[in-house]
Amino acid sequence: MKPFTTGCMRYDGENFTILDQTLLPHQETWLPCHTVNDLVVIIQRLAIRGAPAIGISASVLLGLLAKQGATQTALIEAADELRKARPTAVNLMNNIDQMKRAIIDGPLPDAVIAEAEKLLQEDIELCERMSTNGAALCQPGDKLLTHCNTGSLATAGLGTALGVISKAHQVHSNIFVWVDETRPLLQGGRLTAWECNNRHIPHKIICDNMAAMLMAKGDVSRIFVGSDRIAANGDFANKIGTYSLAVLAHYHKVPFYVVAPQTTVDPECASGDAIPIELRGEHEVKGVSGSFGECQWAPAQSEVFNPAFDVTPAKLVTGWVLDTGVFNQDDVKQPNWWLG
């Protein structure tokens, strides 16, 4: 594979490394990733996260394993193991399926390496098109709100929702961003704020439960969020708390947009009811840990319910911003609407 560098992954011709996002913003540590087990652990502890980035990381690893001489049988086994790493992010499944076709059709290793490089470049280009499409919806002076992290830490390119915000900042004047802290893992307060600082985007971090007050005061122009899976009817799964924002936006008549590549649409998933929701460990809710240390604030004997995602119904969405275009409520009632 050719060497490359993205916001969350690097390959220098010999070593594949991944930025440990659990340690940001205070510490930038790059983790070596040589084996399937390495990557599964990195994905499951959220050292890398974001549906597109997860899918690309798996594709790159398979390309590197092929380059190192792995057999077809070994590559298929590796692909199947990686596919199970996280259940909600459909990009991972899509990328693995494409990589498996390259593994089966051959020749090895060239076809597998070429497919991994193609998927990497494709994601960069998809991000650029999404960002341009979404930025066209913004106006000078807009006060935008976003949830979780959807920038170059979550993709191979500029990002999805944060890519839109970054592009809007480039082409419009006085763009301001409210950054939801995003409980329980603070991906907004830690990661989105870090990226906003790096891109010199004016912003303020807010607790998730402050968004309603800002909307009531008229201080939110529009909302952009990402997605880990979009159902065929437009329902979508995203980081827990997104549904709450959509309900609030609907009540306050604030435009609410979901931003994702068309590869995030799952044609086999008829509605949000069919999207699997990952449940995670209790430690994420009972306390916090990172480069700043560890703290547990909840009683040890208390039980926890910790879904990583929630599903927002299509009826609450103003528009779907994809690389193939911007789609409205009428559009998503059409077959294969996401293809443009």
TrEMBL record:
The record marks C148 as: Transition state stabilizer. It catalyses: 5-(methylsulfanyl)-alpha-D-ribose 1-phosphate = 5-(methylsulfanyl)-D-ribulose 1-phosphate; 5-deoxy-alpha-D-ribose 1-phosphate = 5-deoxy-D-ribulose 1-phosphate. Keywords: Amino-acid biosynthesis, Isomerase, Methionine biosynthesis. One of its GO terms (molecular function) is S-methyl-5-thioribose-1-phosphate isomerase activity. This is Methylthioribose-1-phosphate isomerase. One of its GO terms (biological process) is L-methionine salvage from methylthioadenosine. Substrate binds at R49, G50, A51, R86, Q187, N238, K239. Belongs to the EIF-2B alpha/beta/delta subunits family. MtnA subfamily. Catalyzes the interconversion of methylthioribose-1-phosphate (MTR-1-P) into methylthioribulose-1-phosphate (MTRu-1-P). Also catalyzes the interconversion of 5-deoxyribose 1-phosphate and 5-deoxyribulose 1-phosphate. Part of a bifunctional DHAP-shunt salvage pathway for SAM by-products. It comes from Pleionea litopenaei. Pathway: Amino-acid biosynthesis; L-methionine biosynthesis via salvage pathway; L-methionine from S-methyl-5-thio-alpha-D-ribose 1-phosphate: step 1/6. The active site is at D228. The keyword Amino-acid biosynthesis applies. Gene3D superfamilies: translation initiation factor eif-2b, domain 1 (1.20.120.420), Translation initiation factor eif-2b, domain 2 (3.40.50.10470). Its EC number is 5.3.1.23.
